[in-house]
Amino acid sequence: MITVEFLITSLIVVLIPGTGVIYTVSTGITQGRRAGFYAALGCTAGIIPHLLATILGLTALMHASALAFQTLKYAGVAYLFYIAYATWKDTSAFALENTPPRSTALSLVVKALLLNILNPKLTIFFLAFLPQFVKPGSGSPFLQLLLLSGIFMAMTFAVFLVYGLLAHAFRTAVIESKTVQSWLRRSFAAAFAGLGVHLAFSEK
User: What is the chain's Cα-based Rg?
Assistant: First the structure.
């Protein structure tokens, strides 16, 4: 269940600059490290509803119908290949958005929270990502999904926190580097494609 493959893939997914990362980095640059911490906290908390929906939905499917779960699995395969292709073809550069001069800790957390809660792609991603790491016969699927989700969230918070605390360095090395952006995009696309292949040939 908790394999090196899961940890490495999760880390790759978390490291890729997306909406949450850009917000955290932007906040860290314009408002300081403390603000970056609250932004990272809010972005991580915004993942919880998507993970809960995924865990409850997948657990119900596993208990209700093997056919339904298989259908979901192959839909997840198709989605993973689609986002791998879309990521590979995307040539747009990451950009930092301007933020207000100063914000309260609560407002930073709430804004970051809503940023991820209102992103429906997260639920779709987790529906495609988590099933392949659930091992039949290794205990309750619900507890396995809960543990995997907890680890993913911990990694997300740790990486986002580093992004926020080292915002200026990351801005130069990542956000404003076309070479690094290109490498990240291709790595992300390869990770999604690899997930799709693994999921397609998994036993359940």
Answer: 17
pLDDT of residue 99: 47
Residues whose CB is less than 8 angstroms from the CB of residue 51 and which lie 6 or more positions away in sequence, other chains included: 126, 149, 152, 153
Closest C-alpha to 7, from 199, 147, 162: 147
pLDDT by position in tens, the chain (length 204):
678 888 888 888 788 767 787 788 778 777 778 888 999 999 999 888 888 887 887 767 666 666 666 676 677 677 778 767 876 876 665 555 554 556 788 988 988 888 878 766 677 777 777 777 877 777 787 888 889 888 999 999 999 888 888 776 666 666 666 777 777 677 767 876 876 777 677 654
Domain ranges of the chain: 19-89+105-200
Closest CA to 163 of 173, 152, 150: 173
Contacts of 17 (CB under 8 A, 6+ apart): 25, 94, 174, 175, 181, 184
> What would the two tokens of residue 15 be?
């490291």
Let me know: does 12 contact 191? Beta carbons within 8 Å: yes
